Automatic annotation (TrEMBL):
Pfam entry (one): Flavin_Reduct
Protein name: Flavin reductase family protein
Source organism per UniProt: Streptomyces vulcanius
Flavin reductase like domain location: 22-166
TM segment ranges: none
Top-rank taxon: Bacteria
EC number, as in UniProt: 1.5.1.-
Keywords: Oxidoreductase
Length: 169
């Protein structure tokens, strides 16, 4: 039998409490990209969610202090890339502040609607941004799928306990 945390260990709401709880939540890893005024931008996201099948729509969160936010805040289209477990370094590059995210060894091309599309991912989508909803120090971006490719090979990359990992059999 496993033990369940009790009410005696409960803590008041805080940024640290939220971070501590979500470290225990395994999440798929995506990279969001957009064309910026001075070149492509992108960031690693674990907040990707399917929102609607009709029309096909998704959401992701982005911090308003993130270096990618100025471009995302005005982008008409974004790229959404699901990473494979072989792409831990790519995920780390897009998560690292100040990194040259689109330099070598990142392989990418300009895709539909001018969106940067990463190579060798499990799946990618190009989406039209339909809303940016304020949510604390973030914005929730709602985007409608325009087109994509689900045919990449491999297994998904996960984020858990503050590190990138893979599924186990």
């Amino acid at each position: 039998m496993t033990a369940t945390p009790g009410l005696g260990t409960a803590r008041l709401a805080s940024p640290e409490l939220l971070r501590s709880v979500f470290r225990r939540h395994a999440a798929g890893v995506a990279v969001i990209t957009a064309a910026g005024a001075s070149g492509p931008v992108g960031f690693t996201a674990t907040s990707l969610t399917s929102v609607s099948a009709e029309p096909p729509m998704l959401s992701f969160g982005v911090g308003t202090g993130a270096s990618s936010w100025p471009a995302i805040s005005g982008a008409e289209h974004v790229g959404v890339h699901l990473l494979g477990d072989h792409q831990q370094e790519l995920a780390a590059t897009f998560a690292r502040s100040g990194a040259d995210r689109f330099g070598t060894p990142t392989v990418w091309r300009e895709g539909p609607e001018g969106v940067p599309v990463l190579d060798d991912v499990l799946a990618w989508l190009v989406c039209r941004v339909v809303a940016r909803v304020p949510a604390g120090d973030h914005r929730i971006v709602l985007a409608e799928v325009v087109l994509g490719d689900p045919e990449g090979v491999g297994r998904p990359l996960l984020y858990h306990q503050g590190r990138f990992t893979a599924l186990r059999d």
